[in-house]
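Example protein as discussed:

>
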Amino acid sequence: MTASSGNIESSQPSAGEPGESLGAAVTFATTEHFTLQTARSTTVTEASSRALGFLAVLSSSLIALAFIGQMSELGTAFYVFALVLLPALSFIGLVTFQRLAQITSEDIAYAQRIARLREFYVDVAPRLEPYLTIVRGAAAAQRLRDASAHPGGWQLFLTLTGMVALVNSVIVGAAGAIMIDAITDDSLAPSVAVGVPAGILALLLHIAYLRRSQSAVDGETHDEFAVVAPPSVPLKPRTDGPVG
């Protein structure tokens, strides 16, 4: 088996020849490539479903809160319901945000592993390099360092994770404002003075967590259960005698 003219050509190698091992390696690599691409598709599906689920819960909860406020004329029942509901929504938003951050890290790790396989394809068939967009060597290492150290600020808000972070921060600020409003008896200034900083602080904490999680992505150890091979367990000989 040779890698001439950018194609892998079979030359009927005998058992044990290097070409036979290379053919098996290519087969394994393409299978792994397909598996990783499927895993990336799964992360996109899970991220979309989790974000949509959070927004659906939020929408129905706000409708219920509006009904309670109308029926109670923004009385005690409204404040009790809001101060029970909004912290619960904030918790749901927090765990949704954290899972989306994990999914983002998983997607980046899968993409790095796929890029490594693409480099293998180019090594096997060098004439494929003009047709595959791939950065190799020192330039690749420098780009990865820059991307890990400085994830884009505005770009974070263009993702599902950033959107959930913003919405959840608004919920936190609203909960703080309503709590102060209940304590100070319909005083607007203290509510704004507490709610706005609380929301901004929550947003900054969300973004800091997201930046840290993206900077810590490591394709080698991200999913240890998937990349660490456990020791094989030797088969125990049967001790039972022949039947009959």
Remarks:
- The chain has a mean pLDDT of 79.
